[in-house]
Amino acid sequence: MVSVPASEGAMSEKRLQRIESNVMKLEAGVRRLGTGQKNLRRHVGQLQSGQDRLCRQVGRLETGQKRLEIGQKQLEIGQRRLEIGHKQLGGGQQSLRRDVRKLQAGQIQLGEKFDELRHHMGVLHEAALRYIRDLLPPRDLIPRAAQTDLVQLRKDVNDRIVPLSQVVSEHSEQLKALHEGRA
């Protein structure tokens, strides 16, 4: 060995101890760095795994969102169809109401026409009966002109007989009263 002065050797010794102490600290730091690096790699793996799960969930959410958007569009289309159908139904109801009013007016007119027809049929029926009666020979052996004269004769006789029967009736009552008065 090389001889080093004591003051220099002592320093070197101190220096060497300091270096050794620093090396030990460095080695401990390197070990801690290694452990930290392993922990960091484990955390990075966990983060990547979490990120993968998150990506899958985001993908599912995006798919769900697209399905919701499609469903919403289908719902809007359905709502438009319902609105169109409602308008068509309203128009159909109005048309139906107009048709019903026309039918009711037609029924009233038809009723009036039936009443008019019934009247005309009655008039025609009476006219036909008179025509047929005039065509038929009289059932009696007395001619029609004689029948008219006979009716007049009956009237004249009744006009004369009625006053006479009243006088006779009064006279009978007076006689009866006289007989009762004597008895």
Summarize the structure.
The protein has 183 residues and is mainly α. It has helices at residues 6-135, 144-182. It has a domain at 17-107.
Molecular structure report:
The chain has helices at residues 6-135, 144-182. With 183 residues, the protein is mainly alpha-helical. The model has no long low-confidence stretch (mean pLDDT 85).
Secondary-structure map with pairings?
Layout: H1 6-135, H2 144-182
Helical segment tally?
2
Beta-strand percent range: under 5%
Question: Could you give the order of the helices and strands?
Answer: HH
Tell me about the largest β-sheet. none
Averaged pLDDT? 85
Structural class: mainly alpha
Number of strands: 0
Specify Rg, calculated over alpha carbons.
69 Å
Looking at how many chains there are and whether they match, the oligomeric state comes to: single chain
Q: Helicity range of the residues?
A: over 70%
| Outline type | rod-shaped
Query: What gap, in angstroms, lies between the N and C termini?
Result: 213 Å
Question: Low-confidence spans: pLDDT under 50, at least 5 residues?
Answer: none
